[in-house]
Amino acid sequence: xxxxxxxxxxxxxxxxxxxxxxxxxxxxxxxxxxxxxxxxxxxxxxxxxxxxxxxxxxxxxxxxxxxxxxxxxxxxxxxxxxxxxxxxxxxxxxxxxxxxxxxxxxxxxxxxxxxxxxxxxxxxxxxxxxxxxxxxxxxxxxxxxxxxxxxxxxxxxxxxxxxxxxxxxxxxxxxxxxxxxxxxxxxxxxxxxxxxxxxxxxxxxxxxxxxxxxxxxxxxxxxxxxxxxxxxxxxxxxxxxxxxxxxxxxxxxxxxxxxxxxxxxxxxxxxxxxxxxxxxxxxxxxxxxxxxxxxxxxxxxxxxxxxxxxxxxxxxxxxxxxxxxxxxxxxxxxxxxxxxxxxxxxxxxxxxxxxxxxxxxxxxxxxxxxxxxxxxxxxxxxxxxxxxxxxxxxxxxxxxxxxxxxxxxxxxxxxxxxxxxxxxxxxxxxxxxxxxxxxxxxxxxxxxxxxxxxxxxxxxxxxxxxxxxxxxxxxxxxxxxxxxxxxxxxxxxxxxxxxxxxxxxxxxxxxxxxxxxxxxxxxxxxxxxxxxxxxxxxxxxxxxxxxxxxxxxxxxxxxxxxxxxxxxxxxxxxxxxxxxxxxxxxxxxx
Length: 590
Fold this sequence. Notes:
single chain; 590 residues; mainly alpha; 69% helix; elongated
């Protein structure tokens, strides 16, 4: 990649004399093309500057010349002539005019692709591509090859379009290079920043390109947004967002980023409050309203979700966000057929709308249509490979089909995106247990304990062994402890199993009060649950087998008081009394 171009004043694009002369000569045609573009007549807009057809080419081709050499005879000569015409015409256009023409071609191809596609999740859905991409790639590649000879100063818009085309062709490395050039030339083109963020898969990739970006306010906003999309909820991200909000205190976009950070950490109360404030301040803003409806769905706030759905419907019925909000409302009412209908409607409006694919997969799972759910989740992953919900949904769907090896793969992808989500690690542990890898399952469940402890108390330790010292004094998840105990039982390590069963019982009372740490309150445990009762029954039988009848009797009597596993507890009490009576008789008899 070439060196970064010289910095220009913020908000300005450096134009040389050639560009200014060409723009002045094309001003009347540009106004006509812009009018067609605003009316969404994209083919007419492109025809103002590109009357001929675009050349045949490949999105993956490094050079149109190499594509020509693969052909022979008359086909080769025809392609060469076709390439010569458009290439010569585009080199004589200003960058401003060329961009609007090529971008209109791209949008026209996207429209035709959606029109030619079949119904959502139909037999041929997803197999159609934008047929304008090869021609766009060939023209832009030729233009950039001729740029050093022409001596013209790039403006950033054609780099932005070429980055989009390369990303569509899965040439992501080169797409990043051109998008970085674009944001250097035209800093305030937020579309280029969004395309660049969509190409980042890990935090390491974000840190790698951060050194190549211009040092200004837009880069700061981009870094916060990209970190949020990568589920980074650290103090650094929150502090950076707080700093931005001091500059733009009324920015609904930045406030929604704060709400999404709370949403990713499952702090639904704070996230709901932020979204509610945004809705009061800007009732006709539909951006991120689908995320707000997800929060209301999880919190089971049916009345508020109905109100949000009504507000969105009155604002614009034909927005994907509106359809997702209404779909969530019907899902909360357990009307899954209507929910799927609205999620389909959202995808008809925008087939790349991530939330609709994921939510529709959830609805198909509820309707027991596992294969349709898998197709929906796969399409969600195709749209955004960073969506951990879709990866987790794929794993859950394959679990329902009892294909646990496949489920394990997808759950591991979800944990890579959400390493501090205990639910992800519990799913991995369950799959390892089903495929017979008991030690791996134990390690996964212990990671779930660490993840839960990290969320509750900010504890972050590796917890790769059986040591519980890194978990602090918080309440642990009894279900995870119980599953670990059962796995140790399968390994015939009964002492370890009993130790974890005791830990399950300890979670009923919670951490003891510590006078040196007033933040821990006594009695903060989970209380009696079905899981703790099962652990108590197991321990009662374990003590009975070991001959510790007094301890076994105490546990069994506690079970009778809990009201859970009562019949088994009463039977055990009878057996213990019979054994104790027999022991007394044997002591008395000489």
